[in-house]
Amino acid sequence: MIQPSQLRSPPGRPVGRRALLARGLSLAAGLTVGSGALAATPAPLASAAERLRAFVRMRGALDDRVVIGFVSGAYQGVVDGEATPLFGLSAATFARWRAVGDGYEVVGCEQAYFTDLETGQVLDSWRNPYTGATIKVPITASAPSKMRLNPDLTFAAAPTTSPGVSLAQMVSAPDQIGGEVFFTETIRARVALPGAPRPFRYNDATTMRAQLSDVLSPDGARAPCETSYQAILSWRPWLEMGDRSGQMVSFGQGRYGAALDELPPVWTEATRRARPALLDHPETVLDPLWRA
Known about the structure:
By secondary structure, this protein is α+β, with helices and mostly antiparallel strands. Helices cover 19% and strands 40% of the residues. Strand 2 and strand 3 form a beta hairpin. The longest helix is centred in the first third of the chain and has 15 residues, at 17-31.
């Protein structure tokens, strides 16, 4: 045990905090001599293989089940630093994952709706507060696409026939806080649109959160995972903003691994009308690329 007399300073020289800490550490280190040092315990998710497996269990699944994700959020316009609420967002993704070589292949699609901020209902038309024009609101219904997740947690998209599109998608190293683990997936996209004064740019970040014990469990193909989402993007073309300066920001929250009956009712009702196969047999929507 360190005795108080060992930490006294010479007469007339007070013990500073740094000196006290340094002296205490050196004495404590000396106590380990001859007593045997404690063996270091490997940190969880220290290897690339562990991080890859953990991410797939949160974002997708280790088997080939259809994994449903959803996000509920909102958009704002930003001009000269001033934010203006625009509309809400209700979106769901459907994806299947499988191990291929040293990485994973994923086939997925998205179905998204823009919603009224007051009622929460899907918008058919919307009044643009910047221009005063009433605009028809589209539905975002993406066809299935295929990507590869590499061992270093970068994504490689399938070759695209659109020369004006560039895409970068990657995943951060995990953060471990208390008993939870966090991954953040980022997307940076640039699309050259015919006749547009400048390219459309899209940047988002989705942070996934799960219990470390669930991620490390040897049982089960996936771990329960909550998400938060933020994006910065150009004016969406359908807003008909022309060459007006400004941009959009979006934010929301959701989950990966949701059941169909957990999806927001407004999304389910709209999809029953627009794309019922996603509700009845989602695997058939993904099959053309999944079986290719």
